[in-house]
Amino acid sequence: MTDRGLPQRRITGFFLDEHGDWVARLECGHTRHVRHRPPWQVRPWTQTEAGRASRLGRRLGCARCAQERSREAGVS
Ligand SMILES: [Zn+2]
Predict the structure, then answer these.
(1) For residue 32, is pLDDT > 90?
(2) Domain extents for the chain?
(3) Interval between CA 65 and ligand 1 midpoint (Å)
(4) How many Cα neighbours within 13 Å face the side chain of 6?
(5) What spacing in Å lies between the alpha carbon of 52 and ligand 1's midpoint?
């Protein structure tokens, strides 16, 4: 998935899901997986506390917000 065209939301925290994958919590209240599964998805920064801390406040595109926005606009 590309971030192009998605609303950009700040990362407010991280937590592990039930499968041990890292999930970013976004300021809008939604969440987004930040999986590290080389060679397909490479995010070595998720593997360390310092790496995750360095990403706090950065923005990620939120697909959920984009969906809600298009629903409000009457596009289904
Ligand atoms: Zn959102």
Answers:
(1) yes
(2) 8-72
(3) 4
(4) 17
(5) 19
Q: Is 53 helix (H, G, I), strand (E, B) or coil?
A: helix
Residue 43 reports pLDDT greater than 90: yes
Instruction: Reply yes or no on whether the pLDDT at 2 is more than 80.
Output: no
Residue 72 parent element (H or E)? helix 63-72
Query: Is-contact 32 46, C-beta < 8 A?
Result: no
CA of 44 to the centre of ligand 1 (A): 24
SS3 of 15, please?
strand
Instruction: List phi, psi (to 5°) of 37.
Output: -135, 75
Q: Do 24 and 32 contact (CB within 8 A), yes or no?
A: yes
